[in-house]
Write a structure and sequence with these properties.
By secondary structure, this protein is of the alpha+beta class. The radius of gyration is 21 Å and the shape is globular.
Length: 368
């Protein structure tokens, strides 16, 4: 057995067989088709495996992107397609690969890792549920109440990439999405192991928003996995998307930084549910993350106080302090909840309560 090590290009067919057998055992679908941003030759260095007798037997995959959190640039790794053949489980292969992925990411300057799952393996190393987002569900009659005058939707095409790039770039918390990401979606038409649609919303023939959605074959609800652009146009187009998808209702993920959109949907009869920023989050370099977020802190409490903001670690204890205020939490998971917030954690008052939680990411089309 060899590993952990990056997969070799000639081993990609063996890796494909592994991930398909674990995630899509009774399907003709293909994980490489669903996640081209993860499974491509240029990303082989981030696909860590164990191999035995010429066969890939365990895998942890990673993508790495910059992200903008209220204008501050941070580096993010996304972990996905974690898989091991049944006969090789309980040998700590996946957990060993995960640790190697963390080490690799830290060496590459990553601040935190988003993991598409909440298994014990992840929680044991400090991954936590974070974010104060919402999922709002609307019946067709609810969505019909939202204004739709002079509004139309049309399927996304290559000519729409530039508009979608600009619309997504205006989101408060977002990935710095590459041109490759858009082109991969254009080819795969998939998101979160579902065939997905991306609709460009126009008002008077002027593009002003987009909506990405999917509808599982056995579900009556279509789910909006990502949206960007004018929020009034997004809300107004939900009925159109539901009808085009043949759905009885529509659900939409709304980030914490989009309270206006959430309120519009609730006023129309939408039913909100609290939601995290999908999967779990693992902090990799807390001091570096705090330093990179300093421009955000300056906007919240001013330059002098932001310069005084500190984070110190003593064993499991992580202490956040600013201008005489301090708060200590125990462990990476608690620190992640403090920094990014969640619906169950009360936040401090004073200056610390003004800078934390910081805006949280939502996967959207970057899900792996």
């Amino acid at each position: 057995m060899t590993g952990p090590r990056p997969v070799r290009v000639e081993e990609l067919p063996s890796l494909r067989a592994l991930v398909n057998s674990v995630f899509l055992p009774d399907s003709a679908n293909d994980m490489f088709q669903f996640f081209p941003q993860l499974f491509n030759e240029q990303n082989c260095g981030n696909l860590l495996v164990f191999e035995e007798a010429g066969r890939v037997i365990s895998h942890v995959g990673r993508t790495q992107r910059w992200a903008s959190l209220a204008g501050s640039l941070v580096q993010v790794a996304c972990i996905g397609a974690v898989s091991t053949y049944p006969e090789y489980r309980n040998q700590h292969l996946a957990s060993t690969l995960l640790q190697s992925a963390c080490d690799q990411a830290i060496a590459a300057g990553v601040d935190f890792m988003m993991i598409s799952g909440g298994l014990g393996m992840y929680r044991r190393v400090g991954a936590a549920d974070v974010g104060r987002d919402h999922r709002v569900s609307l019946r067709l009659d609810d969505a019909r109440r939202l204004p739709r005058e002079d509004l139309s939707i049309a399927p996304f095409s290559e000519s729409d990439i530039e508009f979608c790039e600009r619309a997504y770039a205006r989101k408060s918390a977002r990935f710095v999405r590459t041109r490759d990401d858009w082109e991969w979606f254009l080819r795969s038409r998939s998101c979160m192991t579902h065939i997905a649609d991306l609709w460009v919303v126009r008002v008077d023939d002027v593009p002003c928003a987009y909506i990405a959605s999917y509808k599982p074959a056995d579900d009556s609800e279509v789910f909006v996995v990502e949206h960007a652009g004018d929020e009034t146009a997004v809300a107004g187009a939900l009925w159109n998307v539901a009808v085009q998808s043949g759905a009885d209702s529509i659900g939409i993920h709304v980030q914490a930084e989009e309270p206006y959109l959430r309120q519009r949907l609730v006023d129309a009869g939408g039913r909100p549910e609290t939601n995290h920023s999908m999967g779990t989050l693992l902090l990799l370099n807390i001091p570096q993350l705090i330093e990179r977020m300093r421009p955000w802190f300056e906007t919240r409490i001013g330059m002098k106080a932001a310069h005084d903001l500190r984070v110190t670690q003593d064993g499991e204890a992580v202490t956040f302090s600013v201008c005489g205020e301090s708060c200590t939490v125990s462990g990476k998971a608690a620190a992640a909840e403090f920094i990014f917030g969640n619906h169950d954690r009360a936040m401090p008052d004073g200056l610390l309560g003004r800078v934390f939680p910081i805006p949280g990411l939502w996967y959207g089309l970057n899900y792996v």
